[in-house]
Amino acid sequence: MEITDTQYRQIERCLPTPRGNVTLDNLHVLNAILYVTEQGCKWRGLPKRFGNWHTIYTRMNRWSKSGVLDRVFAQLQQAQITRVKIEAVALDSTIVKVHPDGTGALKKTVRKPLAGLAADGPPRFIWLPRMLERP
């Protein structure tokens, strides 16, 4: 699912104009975002032909926070260029319930001295019983 130049011209007004030292134009970034949307791959798994994955991710994140992606996807559907339905499902360690023992309970901070001094750390000597004389 990639957008051609003629299709891009129909939705170009939804995207902000690039400013500064920009290595990737908006068409390449949008095609990369659509690739990740369609394939469901990780950003690091993006093919090299799209460019640096971190640059694309940073721009996508900025567009998402400012509402640009919502306008672009709405315009893509209105112009019948692509049929994109975004459903967000997030499942990571912050959502999955953990056993109470694995929640990072408070650690013991006060050390209690035990009967033997060597009991706190590694043994300072090892008993090796040997027979010196045979009866």
| Distance from first to last alpha carbon | 91 Å
The helix tally amounts to: 4
Describe the biggest sheet?
Answer: none
Structural class: mainly alpha
- Beta-strand portion reads under 5%
How are the elements arranged and paired?
Blueprint: H1 5-11, H2 26-39, H3 53-66, H4 68-78
Helix pairs in contact: 2-3
Keywords:
135 residues
Overall description:
The structure is a single chain. By secondary structure, the protein is mostly helical. It has a domain at 5-78. It is built from 4 helices and no strands. Helix 2 (26-39) crosses helix 3. The longest helix is centred in the first third of the chain and has 14 residues, at 26-39. The chain is elongated. The model has no long low-confidence stretch (mean pLDDT 76).
In short:
This protein has 135 residues and is mainly α. The chain contains 4 helices and no strands.
